[in-house]
Write a structure and sequence with these properties.
Layout (H helix, E strand, L loop, with lengths): L2 E3 L6 E3 L2 E3 L16 H13 L4 E3 L8 H12 L8 E6 L8 H15 L4 E6 L8 H14 L2 E7 L3 H14 L4 E5 L13 H7 L3 E2 L20 H5 L1 H7 L3 H18 L3 H11 L6 E3 L3 H9 L7 H8 L27
Parallel strand pairs: 3-4, 3-10, 4-5, 5-6, 6-7, 7-8, 8-9
Antiparallel strand pairs: 1-2
Helix pairs in contact: 2-3, 4-5, 9-10, 9-12
Length: about 325
């Protein structure tokens, strides 16, 4: 395993992050999530391979994702300082208000059975809460020791820029990581959000690096339970199938040429683009092996250009135009 720093912090994270949306009680959010025993196998395997970075959220499977991760780490006597735990807040009553953040952090810490988070991420931009209220509250969590560093997730570039400036101008803790929607089939953040992140030395930890599995197979459709039932993934990608299959074919072509998996080409592309740690969500241990194996795959500038050549502008997916009604969950895809 290889490791890298998170932004300007002293937090060392593995260059593969295990997304924990796949873990939790089935039916609370998705039908395909893993039960505790199956989740434990995957998490332990990730630890054995040197992965120390785990990403979950208070909204994943009604909090049971956090519960499972916390139980696995405690039951297997994993020293707390040997893992980097990230969780998120927003899809909850009150969104990113002071009252909501202070309530939700305690619930998250209780479910994870830990005294602190290494990284606390706002899951979306809150249109109803003043930026200063959110950033000041997050800063207080850092000062109190409940959180080590802060991150943001999918939003528009101007929103992230305004939040970062609010923190800097008031002497509050700025963001160190951006968990955005980014892969070879969706590169809209290259226009504004990613350049802003680079300006502020904010590490990229994208979700959906495999575009819900589309970059891991030569055909668009799959027979897996997740692919058949995941309406969120279909909404994200199916409208651009015809154009995006041109990219998928090139990924397959290059994988055959290099003698590796398509998923490894997709993940190696992330690192070639300056990503710190793509978030990989899996339901089988062999997919973790594939992700870690991508460290041995190197792409030339010419190969990167060849993979990107067919890309066309896409509709925005991830950032939201207004707060959705309470109870609505816009889910991340970690595959």
């Amino acid at each position: 395993m290889e490791y890298t720093k998170l932004g300007s912090t002293d937090i060392n994270v593995s260059k593969v992050c295990l997304g924990c949306m796949s873990f939790g009680e089935a039916g609370t959010m998705h039908d395909w999530t893993l039960n505790y025993e199956e989740s434990e196998k995957v998490i332990k395997h990730a630890l054995d391979l040197g992965i120390n970075f785990f990403d979950t959220a208070n909204s994943y499977s009604a909090g049971t994702s956090e519960e499972y991760l916390g139980r696995v780490l405690k039951n297997n006597n994993i020293p707390r300082d040997k893992v980097v735990i990230a969780s998120k807040v927003y899809f909850n009553p009150g969104r990113l208000s002071r009252e909501a953040i202070l309530r939700e952090i305690d619930g998250t810490l209780n479910r994870l059975q830990t005294d602190y988070l290494d990284l606390y991420i706002i899951h979306r931009f809150d249109y109803d809460t003043p930026i200063e209220e959110t950033m000041k509250t997050l800063h207080e969590l850092v000062k109190s020791g409940k959180v080590r560093a802060l991150g943001a997730s999918a939003m528009y570039g101007y929103q992230f820029h305004n939040m970062q400036l609010a923190a800097i101008n008031h002497g509050w803790t700025p963001f160190s990581a951006m968990e955005n929607h980014y892969n070879m089939l969706y590169r809209e953040d290259e226009r504004e959000l990613i350049p802003i992140c680079k300006q502020f030395n904010v590490s990229l930890i994208p979700y959906s690096p495999l575009a819900a599995g589309h970059l891991a197979r030569s055909t668009w459709e799959s027979d897996s339970l997740r692919s058949k039932t995941d309406k969120v993934a279909k909404g994200k990608y199916d409208r651009m199938e015809e154009q995006d299959m041109k990219i998928v074919k090139r990924v397959n072509e290059l994988a055959l040429k290099k003698g590796c998996k398509m998923s490894q080409i997709a993940i190696a592309w992330q690192w070639a683009k300056g990503v710190a740690s793509p978030i990989i969500g899996v339901t089988k241990t062999r997919y973790i092996d594939d992700a870690v194996g991508a460290l041995d795959v190197n792409l030339t500038q010419e190969e990167v250009a060849y993979l990107e050549e067919c890309y066309v502008p896409h509709p925005i997916v991830g950032a939201i135009n207004s707060n959705p009604p309470q109870g609505t969950i816009l889910l991340d895809e970690k595959r």
